[in-house]
Specification:
Elements (H helix, E strand, L loop, with lengths): L4 H15 L9 H14 L3 E3 L5 E6 L5 E6 L4 E7 L5 E6 L11 E5 L5 E8 L20 E5 L6 H6 L7 E4 L4 E2 L4 E4 L2 H18 L3 E3 L3 E6 L18 E5 L2 E2 L11 E7 L2 E2 L2 H13 L4 E5 L6 H7 L5 E9 L6 E4 H15 E3 L2
Parallel strand pairs: 3-13, 3-14, 14-19, 15-19, 16-18
Antiparallel strand pairs: 1-2, 2-13, 4-5, 4-9, 5-8, 6-7, 6-9, 7-8, 10-11, 11-20, 12-21, 16-17, 16-19
Helix pairs in contact: 1-4, 1-7, 4-7, 5-7
The protein binds zinc ion.
């Protein structure tokens, strides 16, 4: 397959760029507009659904295939402004509060203003609170300290902050010399970047889709209904391209493309999953087949919403998911190779 080192380079760059655009579920307009610009420049027809997903037609004919990834990420919302001028949060998506402790954040007001802050525990100073390590992390003890000179509810309101404002977390995106990507929100920005490179290869005329191929980029995955709508009605096979789970006894690591056989929503389609395994074997990819015990994907949601499709889940291995995540450029490359191997052929 004609995948060059430059393709991997590009995926790393795109992942970094995407991770740095704040897009907590519900506040995804900026990243959506970025994606629209990219796909328009590549020359593909793009349709935005009413709830904000993007459906991109890549071409090809026969046995319609849809590849789904999500561009929304974890985040939070201001629940209330405390009398101290700190913010109480309500989280968006699933993660323990210690995963965001000490993280810089942005508060996005409804009027479009962005303010900086840091997420801290109420007993943050060890020189004052000897037992601060033992403080239970709850939505009462983990709060946003706004980086403005404020110490009352009124002063915070004067800044324009209100309950219902979104909070996004500093992704702290880093690419190491050894090829690791460390960042929040690699779930699922890394896969969005993989699909973007797949589209770019088609746009450059290096590969052609083997069958009618559509990308579905969703914006409500982290709260569980991204894939419920927007899947084209004629879809035969629906494959979620989403992070592979890493840890404990699972075989996936940060270098592999992971093929999920079952997650908490049940088994994935046996034949389609087997087809993916065969492609991975034929191309001698570094891959693993795993069961993700605490995971659900947009394609499970699509099935629950009534779509009659064969479904599968693949993606780059991502360590420390929903925290400060890590993957490696090799995982992006293996994922791209698998998708190209399954869905396209060399031109000519
Ligand atoms: Zn995800």
């Amino acid at each position: 397959m004609p995948i060059q080192p430059a393709d991997t380079e590009r995926m790393v760059e795109d992942t970094v760029e995407l991770c740095r655009i704040p897009s907590p579920t519900g506040l995804t307009k900026r990243v959506r507009e970025h994606l629209i610009r990219v796909y328009e420049s590549l020359g593909f027809p793009i349709r935005q659904t009413r709830k904000g997903a993007l459906v991109i037609t890549l071409g090809g004919s026969g046995r319609p295939l849809a590849l789904a990834a999500h561009f929304d990420t974890l985040g939070a919302m201001v629940r209330s402004i405390k009398p101290t001028g700190r913010l109480r949060l309500n989280i968006i998506g699933g993660f323990p509060l210690n995963h965001i402790e000490r993280e810089n954040c942005l508060i996005h007001t409804r009027a479009g203003k962005t303010l900086e802050g840091c997420i801290q525990i109420t007993e943050a100073s060890v020189h004052v609170f000897r037992e601060s390590g033992k403080t239970e992390r709850t939505d009462k003890t983990v709060e946003v300290v706004i980086d403005e000179k404020v110490s009352s509810r009124e002063e915070v309101k004067d800044l324009g902050i209100r309950p219902g404002d979104f909070v996004s977390f500093d992704p702290r995106t880093v690419v190491t010399k050894s090829g690791f990507l460390k960042s929040r929100h690699l779930d699922d920005k890394a896969s969005v970047a993989v699909l973007m490179q797949f589209a770019r290869m088609i746009s450059e005329g290096r590969i052609v889709p083997d069958r009618k191929t559509t990308l579905v980029l969703t914006s409500y995955e982290e709260v569980g209904h991204g894939g419920a709508a927007s899947i084209p009605a004629d879809t035969h096979d629906l494959i979620a391209v989403d992070m592979g789970a890493v840890g404990d006894d699972l075989e996936t690591n940060e270098h592999k493309v992971s093929i999920c056989a079952k997650d908490s929503g049940g088994p994935y389609d046996h034949d389609l999953t087997t087809e993916l395994v065969r492609v991975a074997e034929r191309l001698e990819l570094d891959y693993a087949v795993d069961i993700y015990p605490a995971y659900s994907s947009d394609v499970m949601v699509a099935l629950k919403a009534g779509h009659d499709v064969r479904h599968a889940l693949v993606g780059p291995g991502v360590f420390a998911s929903h925290g400060y995540e890590r993957t490696h450029r090799e995982a992006l490359e293996n994922t791209l190779r698998l998708i190209v191997g399954l869905a396209a052929r060399k031109k000519g």
